Amino acid sequence: MIARSRTDLLQVLARGVDVLVIGGGITGAGVALDAASRGYRVGLVERADYASGTSSRSTKLIHGGIRYLPQGHVALVREALRERGLLLRLAPHLVRPLAFAVPLYAGARRPLGVRIPAVLRPFTPLGIRAGLFVYDLFAHDPALRHRALSRDDLAREVPDLRTDRLRAALVYHDAQTDDVRLTHAVLATARSHGAVVINYATVRALRRADGRVRGAVLEDALTGGTLDVAARFVVNATGIWGEAVAGMDGTPPFRIRHSKGSHVVLRSGAVSTRMAIVIPETDDGRLAFIVPWAGRLVLGTTDDAYDGDIRTPTATSQDVAYLLDHANRYLRQPLSPADIVGTFAGVRPLVAATGGATSALSRDHLVVTSPGGLISIVGGKLTTYRRMAADVVDAIVAGDGGGRPCRTTAIALDGATGLEEARRDLEATSLASDQRAHLVVTYGGRAAALAALVRNNGTLAARLVDGLPVTAAEVVYACRAEQAATLSDCLFLRTRLAIIGPEAADRAIEATGTLMARVLGWDAAEIRRQREAYERARAGEQRWRVD
What is the C-alpha separation between 50 and 188, in angstroms, rounded? Predict the structure, then answer.
């Protein structure tokens, strides 16, 4: 369970690798796993913490993208649904089916973002059902087919939805995940195939030999030291930073437009529902959802062109007002800022197009090789990360003589097995039932490692915050097994406390800092510095209240 030391990992990288992946989000993790499973020596470096960018700020969905069908992106929807099916099989502990209620009201002009001519509006429910039929056809999963909901069914399943002027109601299925845990599962699986992954390592320059990109010069952000890493292939999987990294090898052969997606996290019970809810119409043709997640509800997302600081995107008061306004049009009891427990915003890297709204840009991906040989993967979406990674490594294999087929369609992700054993191990601890259930849902079979920590040290069964199932053992595990290095790593990314309940996270600061100090050897000055850095990040996420 204890990861190799940072010094050891850096020494391995210093000896050189076949494939060096820059970027520790879901796409980079996928590339590392795919390449390592094909027999390449792989190193992955991330400038901050894993999944700290866009990969932690999604709507938590693994989905085909129902709105892309009317936009004509049929191939993207088919591919995404195929990947959804694979993830339901390869990571059942992290990717689970989720039902979505779709209410259709009289007078709607752009239901699900589709502009309907007046003459065709009487047939809107039939048209939406036809689209869902195609969606089901692509999914090839009889258990997840759409169906109609009667008015009584809707009132029972989603009692807080308005039913006046309701013309029809449908339910279809996609899947839900924890984006951060999914990234860590892919990284852990990559490590099991021999990949060396390390965070807080920044690429300062690309290394060249004979006019080709042959590695990178790294700076260790934790010590300030530098390291020269040789590699036969270098992959730029940095998402929103992709254009800047490609610029290290000359003029980038692609352009990225940034789009910000903001979400609000609502208190439990703010909306009474047994399903996710599709906000059926917005003024500007977007698609928004209310999604149950982590004991809360996530309302999102916006989709706006963004030219701000991509390191610190935050929801604004305008974003929050937009989301609440559109949700309240369809709810019996209106939401208010008092129902909001947190917010988060992410920046999407979209392959550039000329003019137009970012919501109309395709989420397709591109694999682009620069004249110097740097391989960049740009665009794409969380759901299709595995396919994106396969395309990247296919490009590497093609340049390396072939003969190494993709294997990731058959590789179960870390934690997918050993669930019953983990449950039995947890039963033998002093953990409460809600804590045990939380660990299995969060870590799958890997929860056995958390159980071992608690058996060895009973104090690690303590809750970080009263009333929530997050345990002290998770902090220790994050530091020992997943390279958590800062207080923000644990509170924002590992436990998600700063997202699902910032006030609760504030109460967990002292306990979390003490645990991390014991594992990582922090002194009082470092604990104080970590707390100050966390509080700055915390204040940024609450900026919508004062801007």
Answer: 12
Structural domain total, the chain: 4
Structural contact between residues 234 and 227, judged by C-beta atoms closer than 8 angstroms:
no
Q: Are residues 434 and 398 in the same domain?
A: no
Q: Which residue has the tokens 């399903």?
A: 275
Pair 17, 43: CB distance under 8 Å: yes
Give residue 457's identity as a one-letter amino acid code.
N
Q: What are the CA-CA distances from residue 211 to residues 90, 205, 430 (Å)?
A: 41, 14, 60
CATH number at residue 22: 3.50.50.60
User: Is residue 147 assigned to a domain?
Assistant: yes
Q: Is residue 68 part of a domain?
A: no
Token pair 């990969």: residue = 55
| Mean pLDDT, rounded, for 115-130 | 86
Whole-number Å distance between alpha carbons of 336 and 179: 27
- SS3 assignment for 186-220: HHHHHHHCCCEEECCEEEEEEEEECCEEEEEEEEE
Residues 28 and 146 in one domain: no
For 11-64, the pLDDT digits (tens) are 999 999 999 999 999 999 999 999 999 999 999 999 999 999 999 999 999 999
The reply to whether 468 falls in a domain is yes
Judgement on whether residues 441 and 530 belong to the same structural domain of the protein: yes
Strands 296-300 and 375-379: unpaired
Same domain, 207 and 249: yes
pLDDT tens figures, 86-111: 999 999 999 999 999 999 999 888 88
> Do 298 and 186 belong to one domain?
no
Is 232 within a domain? yes
Say whether both 134 and 214 belong to one domain. no
**Cβ–Cβ < 8 Å for 353, 257:** yes
- Other beta carbons within 10 angstroms of residue 113's beta carbon come to 20
Tokens, residue 468: 């929530």
> Rounded CA gap, 525 and 84, in Å?
46
The answer to whether 461 and 473 are in contact (CB under 8 A) is: yes
511 burial (CB, 10 Å; 0-12 / 13-18 / 19+) is middle
Nearest to 208 by CA among 236, 245, 249, 237: 249
**pLDDT of 71 over the 80 cut:** no
Q: How far apart are CA 104 and CA 169, in angstroms?
A: 6
DSSP annotation of 228:
E
- 189, 29 Cβ separation under 8 angstroms: no
Among candidates 231, 125, 136, which has minimal Cα distance to 174? 136
> 217 and 233, same structural domain?
yes
Answer yes or no: are the C-beta atoms of 321 and 269 closer than 8 Å.
no
3-class DSSP state of 52: coil
Burial class (CB in 10 A: 0-12, 13-18, 19+), 26: buried
Same domain flag for 225 and 366? yes
Range of the domain at 309: 266-346
Element (H, E) at 115: none
